[in-house]
Amino acid sequence: MKTTTILISQSPLKTVRATEALRMGVGLTLCGDSVQVLFIGDGVYSLLKTEPGRLGMAEYIRHIETLRQLGHRLFAERESITERYRGDVSVAVELISRDDAARMLLESDSVIRY
Q1: Is the overall model pTM greater than 0.70, yes or no?
Q2: Structural domains in the chain?
Q3: Cα separation of 88 and 59, whole Å?
Q4: By its UniProt entry, which Gene3D superfamilies does this protein fall under (predicted)?
């Protein structure tokens, strides 16, 4: 089984890139491979409690929930969270260090960056 890591590094608030990355991640599960999502940089804003539909933006939380229900793992770089936000995130993810995030990317069979 191959492991694909989807790297989300941009805010979901001004672009549909995060939404499309997560939607594609759900689609990749149909191949039978392992999909994991890593939120770094401004991508961690995807994990905050927001209502993108109220702003006329695409909803992305349902894709996160689908990946979780299918047993795929979601990660966030701890340093990115602490640099940008002092409270708790609203989406349950595994917090990992920057070094562990780098190791994860190196060990993945493929990495798709958004």
Answers
A1: yes
A2: 3-113 (3.40.1260.10)
A3: 20
A4: DsrEFH-like (3.40.1260.10)
